[in-house]
Write a structure and sequence with these properties.
By secondary structure, the protein is α/β, with parallel strands linked by helices. 30% of the residues lie in helices and 27% in strands.
């Protein structure tokens, strides 16, 4: 194990938050029964909020941000893992109350870890990250609600982002007709390459919601929230379902009960941070089966640890297409 290692560290003095490159020692790490040599992490929307301080994601300072990590076990007193095991971690308070993935070393609870699927490298697992894992949780929820390809199309909002890109690729492979909603018309070719059959302008769904709209889709994966989610719900067909997993447009939901009591629409809340282990394993097993790694490569860009601060601002500004992998060694 390294005596000293590099990490990104968030500090707060009064109301002022700063982010710095730090050199730490193993003694600086938080409690846990598994120590992981981290090789890769990723940049999600939540990481952007944490690093910029735009939202109070971080609840304990100082904090190493990064809600995802992948690497190799160096030390373990947990019965489920031994040195040399390849592992990944999504959520469980990383970057909020526990040191996260933007670090060469991480000490965590073994119960939080998932074995790295053999189908993926550590870099590929982080190209998926919490965003892609959340996409899979959303699709599992739609399946559980009976939304099969023969029921009708599925709309994906925030389509060019991480959640949206992975959702489109998976849904298309599973045989769904995918409608992609995006505010970046220049990404139409990219979205269709991932599997989208139709593109809907973001402005169309971001307008003032109607109580009930024309029935257009059987299901939805929404990472946007607010008026967009309200419009998605109002245009969901009878017996359809909407998986809500994000808040890029806002936390509010200006809708009515009409779609729920007149059309029997189901709103499915997707929580990924503390999801039970069995569902996590199911999601990663399905990702290994249903996500084309060639499409994953098309949506992925790799940066070094020093690039996460700039990337945090970019992802909140909607400038990031697909997924950003952080190579900790760069």
């Amino acid at each position: 194990m390294k005596d000293r290692f590099k990490a990104v560290l968030i500090r707060k003095d009064g109301d002022t938050q700063t982010v710095e490159d730090a050199i730490l020692t193993p003694a600086d790490l938080m409690d846990g029964d598994v120590t992981v040599a981290v090789s890769h992490s990723t940049v999600n929307y939540k990481d952007g909020l944490a690093i910029t301080g735009r939202s109070p994601v971080v609840r304990k300072f100082p904090m190493i941000p990064g809600i995802d990590l992948a690497g190799v076990v160096e030390q373990s007193s947990h019965t489920g893992f031994k040195p040399g095991d390849k592992v990944l971690l999504n959520g469980f308070g990383l970057s909020e109350t526990h040191y996260g993935g933007y670090s060469e070393l991480a000490r965590v609870k073994g119960d939080w870890l998932v074995p790295l699927p053999k189908a993926f490298s550590a870099a590929e697992a982080m190209a998926i990250g919490t965003a892609g894992y959340t996409s899979m949780l959303s699709i599992l929820a739609l399946e559980d609600a009976g939304i099969t390809p023969d029921k009708g199309p599925v709309v994906v909002t925030g389509a060019s982002g991480g959640v949206g890109s992975v959702a489109i690729a998976i849904l298309a492979k599973l045989g769904y007709r995918v409608i992609a909603s995006t505010g970046r018309v220049e990404e139409e070719a990219y979205l269709k390459e991932l599997g989208a059959a139709e593109i809907v302008a973001r402005s169309e769904l971001a307008a003032e919601p109607r109580m009930l709209g024309k029935e257009r889709w059987a299901g939805a994966v929404d990472s946007v929230g607010s008026k967009t989610l309200a419009n998605v719900i109002s245009s969901t067909q009878y017996g359809g379902a909407v998986a809500a997993c994000g808040l890029a447009q806002g936390l509010d939901l200006p809708t009515t009960v009409a779609p729920f009591i007149l059309r029997g629409v189901s709103l499915l809340g997707i929580e990924s941070v503390y999801m039970r282990k069995a569902r996590r394993l199911q999601a990663w097993e399905r990702l290994a089966r249903d996500l084309d790694v060639k499409k994953l490569a098309k949506m992925t860009h790799t940066i070094g640890l020093s690039g996460v601060r700039a990337a945090a601002g970019d992802i909140l500004a909607g400038k990031v297409r697909g997924r950003l992998v952080v190579d900790i060694s760069r």
